[in-house]
Design brief:
Keywords: Membrane, Transmembrane, Transmembrane helix. The protein has five helices and no strands. With about 130 residues, the protein is mostly helical. It starts with a helix and ends with a helix.
């Protein structure tokens, strides 16, 4: 899961860079919030998730990690589509943005739960190993 998150992070990074460059070339910065969200939630967050899952590979093998991956990477594009619609005055984009945002939030909460559970389990296992 660590490598998968790092690969998708690189995709989000490319999208963010291309969007930023395009906005600069055409001098239209209405999609600045989309650019920021793609870079922070897509590139940076996914890279951090990937690095953490690489450091704690046992956490990456859980159903929580897989569910987190899919919620994050389905929710974020849905959220971005809604945000683009809202930016251009299409009011139907708001519920789309909300659904995508909720998926990202739930995925993030699953990540947090997974990390706390797995790190605590890891400490207990290490303590048991030391006592043997």
């Amino acid at each position: 899961m660590g490598k998968t998150f790092l690969k998708i992070a690189a995709v989000y990074f490319s999208i963010g860079v291309l969007l930023g460059m395009t906005m600069g070339i055409i001098h239209d910065f209405r999609l600045t919030s989309v650019h920021a969200h793609v870079n922070l939630l897509g590139w940076v967050s996914s890279a951090i998730f990937g690095l953490i899952y690489s450091v704690y590979p046992f956490a990456a093998k859980t159903k929580l990690a897989k569910t987190h991956f899919w919620l994050h990477n389905i929710g974020l594009p849905v959220m971005m589509i809604g945000l683009v619609c809202e930016t251009f005055g299409i009011t139907a984009g708001l519920p789309v943005m909300i659904v995508g945002s909720l998926a990202v939030v739930v995925g993030t909460l699953l990540f947090t739960t997974n990390i706390f559970k797995m790190i605590n389990a890891s400490r207990i296992q290490k303590a048991n190993d030391l006592n043997m």
